[in-house]
Amino acid sequence: MKFFFHIAYKGNNYRGWQRQSKAISVQQVLEEAISKILKEEHTIMGCGRTDAQVHATQFFFHLEVREAWDFDLMYRLNRLLPPDIAVFEIIPVLDNQHARFDAMQRTYNYFLHTTKDPFLSDSSAFYGETNLNLEAMKQAAAIFARHNDFMAFCKTPANYQHTLCNISEAKFFVSATGDRLRFQISANRFLARMVRMMMGAMLAIGRGKFTLEELEACLVSKQRTPDFIKPAYPQGLYLSKVNYRFLDIPPRKDFSFLEHSKIEWLPV
Questions:
Q1: pTM of the prediction?
Q2: What's the pLDDT at 220?
Q3: Do the domains 2-93 and 104-246 sit in the same CATH topology, yes or no?
Q4: Percent above pLDDT 70 for the chain
Q5: DSSP result, 123-180
Q6: What gap in Å lies between CA 260 and CA 254, rounded to an integer?
Q7: φ, ψ (nearest 5 deg) of residue 21
């Protein structure tokens, strides 16, 4: 029998989703909790990977068991798991349905703030910028949406069969107060650190250190972006939505670390 688990987690305390030998991961914490409750060792398969300190407001993994449990597993898991991991639903699925390979689209949001705020420090990235060119950053997002080969944003292309990613949406927003920014992007797949590298390029463009023409040239030529463009800080990145043909659950609108969902976000 196979079950999908609909969860969310705050990533600050973890070295990402995937289990590692020398660092704590979200996968490890969940596997240990499930194994303890079911009194048998279990491994789980996630819908993807997130980097160290990256969050997920919607994430799915699947678990295979010989027999279904006869108690409220979600309740017991939420009692046992740390406060920064939550289980929302446990959904029975067909044996051939796969949390990772059947995901059709993933949506990420990157949040940053430009006014220092200690209460945002672990859930949004602080960049003390006063004169970012927001219009140019919006145009950069539109450039990303026009391309589908992101070798220029891939540090290890040899690790992939190809670097094609079909982007269905890339948008840039600013809060009504002007000091909170959000980049939203949806695609069928993403390369490692791809969204953070995109955000790093957008910040360089906003500062006037990288041009829209240079961005376009990198994407067309498949040449790596300049070394001064670094991945944006991890704590601003959220995996926000995962879509399947057989499962399309809205993300929890009331679940937000510091009410990102309640901000009045305005298109630039």
A1: 0.92
A2: 96
A3: yes
A4: 95
A5: TSEE---S---HHHHHHHHHHHHT--B-GGG-S-GGGSS--B--EEEEEEEEETTSSE
A6: 10
A7: -80, -30
DSSP line for 25-71? -HHHHHHHHHHHHHTS----EESS---TT-EEEEEEEEEE-SS--SS
The pLDDT value given to residue 203: 97
- The CA distance from 26 to 13, in Å, is 9
* Assigned CATH topology for domain 2-93: Alpha-Beta Plaits (3.30.70)
Assign residue 196 a region: left if phi > 0, alpha if psi is -120 to 50, beta otherwise? alpha
CA distance 47 to 180: 29
Token couple for 227: 């070394």
Tell me the percentage of the chain whose pLDDT exceeds 90. Answer: 86
Q: Supply the residues annotated as catalytic.
A: 51
Domain boundaries, the chain: 2-93, 104-246
Q: What is the pLDDT of residue 251?
A: 86
Could you tell me how many residues make up the chain?
268
Domain 104-246 sits in CATH at 3.30.70.660
